[in-house]
Amino acid sequence: MRVTQTLPEIPGPGGNGGWVRITDTWTATDLQALVLEHISIDGSETNTQMTKLRREEQPSSLFEVPPEYQIEDELQDFIIQYATRGRNSPAQVIRRVQPKYTQTAGSLGIQGKVLLSATVDESGKAREVRVERSVDPGLDQEAIKAVRQWRFRPAHENGPAVRMDVEVEVTFGLN
Fold first, then answer.
1. For residue 24, which of 5, 44, 39, 41 has the smallest C-alpha distance?
2. Closest CA relative to residue 160, chosen from 79, 87, 84, 81
3. How far apart are CA 64 and CA 97, in angstroms?
4. What are the start-end ranges of the H helices in the chain?
5. What was the pLDDT predicted at 141?
6. What's the pTM?
């Protein structure tokens, strides 16, 4: 199949002059797979080709998890401090508040780890708490509420306490 597209001209220095893109594709209908693609844009060409196709049954060992593969789960929440220069001591958690499990998440069996970023201020309080990796909107909010109640030993730089950005992972698990 051939598709021809004309890209709109971009005027001025470095403009493209209205390039034409031609894409040719060949699909093996019995495999329902793209086996060759040729793209030409204003004289530049790229080719992608599937090679060494074997139609026989593949060994099941290709689809098995290796016996030495292990999944390990952290038992506690932990903090990843951003690397910054000139810090004599990083912020450290000195008091944690456990987040609440929402009824909805509990009834649906939702589990996981919420990754939050925050700034620990000079007094050791978490400010500007944001979700970096979500598990569930309700659990995300409970994690934020809990971390805002955590207390940290603030970071120190050459004596005085200073603000420091941290990442905090909060684990939600059903027993």
1. 39
2. 87
3. 41
4. 103-108, 137-149
5. 93
6. 0.51
Closest to 111 in 3D by CA, of 40, 46, 172 = 172
Across the range 15-25, mean pLDDT stands at: 74
Q: Dihedral of CA 143/145/149/154: which sign?
A: positive
Predicted local distance difference test score (pLDDT) of residue 121: 92
DSSP secondary structure letters along 60-76: GGGGSPPTT------SS
More confident: 37 or 87: 37
CB 90 within 8 A of CB 156: no
CA–CA dist 12, 80 (Å, integer): 47
Percent of the chain with pLDDT over 70: 82
CA angle 149, 152, 157 (to 5 degrees): 145
Contacts of 148 (CB under 8 A, 6+ apart): 125, 126, 129
- Contact call for residues 167 and 80 (beta carbons, < 8 A): yes
Q: Given a cut of 80, is residue 53 above it in pLDDT?
A: no
Segments in 109-166 forming alpha helices (H): 137-149
Length reported for the chain: 175
User: Beta 33-41 vs 44-49: how paired, if at all?
Assistant: antiparallel
